[in-house]
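Researcher: Quick one. two chains, 442 residues in total.
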Amino acid sequence: MVRVNILLGGPSEDYPQDFVDNPKDIPGYWAGADRGNLYLLQHGITPDLAVGDFDSIDQADRELIESKVNDVHQYPPEKDDTDSELVMLIANDKYNADEYYIYGGTSGRIDHFLVNLFLPFDERFESFFDKIKFVSNTNTIEFRRPGSYTVTKEENMKYIGFVGLGAVDNLSILDAKYKLSNFNSDHPISWASNEFVNDKIHYSFDSGVVAVIQSRDKKKD
Amino acid sequence: MVRVNILLGGPSEDYPQDFVDNPKDIPGYWAGADRGNLYLLQHGITPDLAVGDFDSIDQADRELIESKVNDVHQYPPEKDDTDSELVMLIANDKYNADEYYIYGGTSGRIDHFLVNLFLPFDERFESFFDKIKFVSNTNTIEFRRPGSYTVTKEENMKYIGFVGLGAVDNLSILDAKYKLSNFNSDHPISWASNEFVNDKIHYSFDSGVVAVIQSRDKKKD
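Model:
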């Protein structure tokens, strides 16, 4: 199993606790987008891959990244893709990994977040969107193609949401607190605030893309 | 013009600065969802309407809300709708307002945020989704029906994103930094990181729902 971790430019307040506490304990390769590379270097991790326009960081920091990282891809600020898209595409070309864990991609600017949320519909991500997992302090997101699945409760998370990102057919959620049977929709819908009864939930759907989101409240836990 | 402000239960770190600094200067009625009501009371605002299951706040605080607010709608925790949906629907029944400003609805739990983002597709919001504006410290979101529009740059915001929440036809963006001409998509897409050249941008589309998101980076401004 090849695992690649990618740190995007989102606010560090939203990073998961295990990454904040012991970033070097996280297995796998590391790639950084833009100032994500600085955070990694400042916390003892040398990125295996650095991507970005680097327009938001100063000359000295840019030189630090160039001197430390072997594989740097610099792009002009005026480009068609976000840094997030570029780093995921380049990382997939380079590693063809089994799992991509994306940090810093779910908070901050909502237009950026929605690029990430809707990437299953971008044909360049068609081959690997279901290997991508966004992880933050209070939310994780995975994308699923039509099929039958088992999802396991993550430690620290309390709720689970099943989100049809567009039309979806025959979505069934079996052994959760709130069940769903052969649900169809021609538009996006978020089935929020479901919960695990046991530590696993079985679900299935026949067409569309479903985002599975585990979450917790920030205040209460 | 009747304006209603609604405070949802999202984390207070993400509230807009003017609301944090001088909440009482914001014109209009106030409605609170769940613990949003507590924040309002603690900051000198008596909600005109309080909605929620109130399961996340203790008995004393619940009694405070009941003693101060004339119009309290309490629901059981096991309900089909989120508190956010309920408070918007009840506020619209009560006030039939021209504008709904929603605070605390864009951060925190992503499954909840996506309920808010996708509400234009919920038939109960069909009559008024384009009167709703989500406002936070770093992002604002408005929803638009097919038509021709002018959007004005908001003070403090830097970027603008045009997001097709589902299929969209003939989306044109005229006088922005990045232009678009009669763009069609059969799936959701976020055109992120556009910018104002002047203080207005003209855009139009023929079918679908477009979310217009103004934003800024947290770190840099």
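Chain B has five helices and 14 strands.
Researcher: Thanks, that's what I needed.
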